[in-house]
Design brief:
Blueprint lengths: L1 E13 L3 E4 H4 L7 H8 L3 E4 L6 H16 L8 E5 L10 H8 L6 E5 L5 H14 L5 E9 L17 E14 L6 E9 L7 E3 L12 E3 L1 H23 L8 E4 L4 H11 L10 H4 L6 H11 L8 E8 L3 E8 L3
Parallel strand pairs: 4-5, 4-6, 11-12
Antiparallel strand pairs: 1-7, 2-3, 6-7, 8-13, 9-10, 12-13
Helix pairs in contact: 3-4, 6-7
């Protein structure tokens, strides 16, 4: 007897060249480097160049993930792009990435769950692969979040950056009793009654514009730690583990205080938490795969490690995925 597991085969990331520091923001809005770092942990963020789109960032990250997996685009039959900042209203950014990668077969679609998008996309890809709808997938989180910011609103414009991260996942048949591998469990949640706490004030069918990010910061912080703890504890219980058995915690990189608070409440020591928010700021759906890519590239995450991914975003949406890392 065999079971189907979704294994991560490769990871990749991409950051735009331009870096925007806190000191530069001090010149345009009423803020300071010290204030931003104290409240968020952010020191800088990357900003996409003029003419550089979400699909471009996603394509760069995808190519690096394919190289990491030692695969070509011909090996892929599913592309999911998690994004809140698509190139166009339609077609899906995933279809544009599919075209830029030279792929005309398979399936490509976008996932919109704001900052939770990559975790949602991973759970979706896992379901597609386990149900035989695809064999190998590119799962990408990509954002040009700086393009939906009000640069006069100091409460939001200091928080976000641009970037992309990607993974290649593959469905594998494992014999009963084989060593544990791949995605072990996921939990996804949403609560639309909370939408006004984090949203954009525009959209296609309301204003005909993209709008800007609006946030009730204290309310988001108040909900975040509890929501994160809810899904992390649930996923650990589903897979039969406890927090002290985790090797690595890869959270959404929104705010250092939220990350620290969630880690403490779940019972994960700081040395097991991957932090990139200081360098990248909040890149929404791209933040988890970018942090994951960095931790794999520098050798912290190794084969056999138990890795928890977690995110929470507007909607509210939140979710977590537990992975037994493989070669």
């Amino acid at each position: 007897m065999t079971i189907t597991r979704t294994l991560v085969r490769g990871v990749g990331g991409y950051l735009p060249q331009r870096i925007l520091t806190n000191q530069e923001l001090e010149k345009t809005v009423d803020t300071s480097h010290e204030w931003i770092v104290q409240r968020t942990g952010i020191e800088q963020r990357h900003v996409a160049a003029e003419g550089e789109f979400t699909s471009d960032l996603a394509t760069h990250a995808a190519k690096r993930a394919l190289a990491s997996a030692k695969m070509s685009i011909e090996d892929i039959d599913l592309i999911i792009v998690a994004t809140t900042t698509p190139d166009l209203t339609f077609p899906a950014t995933a279809a544009l990435v599919q075209n830029k990668l030279g792929m005309s077969h398979g399936i490509a679609f976008d996932m919109q769950a704001v900052c939770s998008g990559f975790v949602y996309a991973m759970a979706t890809a896992d379901s597609y692969l386990k149900n035989g709808l695809a064999k190998r997938a590119l799962v990408i989180g990509a954002e040009t979040a700086t393009r939906i910011l009000d640069w006069e609103d100091r409460t939001t414009c200091v928080l976000f950056g641009d970037g992309a991260g990607a993974v290649v996942v593959e469905a594998v048949q494992l014999d009963e009793g084989a060593p544990e591998q791949g995605i072990l469990a996921s939990r996804l949640r949403s609560d639309g009654t909370q939408w006004e706490k984090l949203y954009t004030d525009g959209g296609v069918s309301t204003t005909g514009t993209n709008g800007h990010v609006r946030m009730q910061g204290k309310e988001v912080f108040r909900h975040a730690v509890g929501m994160i703890t809810d899904v992390v504890d649930g996923v650990l219980a589903d897979a039969g583990y406890t927090a002290d058995q985790l090797d690595w915690f890869v959270p959404h990189q929104a705010n250092r205080r939220i990350i620290d608070g969630a880690g403490k409440k779940v019972g994960i020591p700081p040395e097991k938490v991957i932090i990139t928010v200081n360098k990248h700021a909040n890149t929404s759906a791209a933040s988890v795969p970018m942090a994951l890519n960095e931790a794999v590239a520098d050798g912290r995450i190794k084969p056999g490690d138990l890795v928890m991914l977690e995110a929470m975003g507007g909607g509210f949406t939140w979710g977590a995925t537990l992975i037994r890392w493989t070669d």
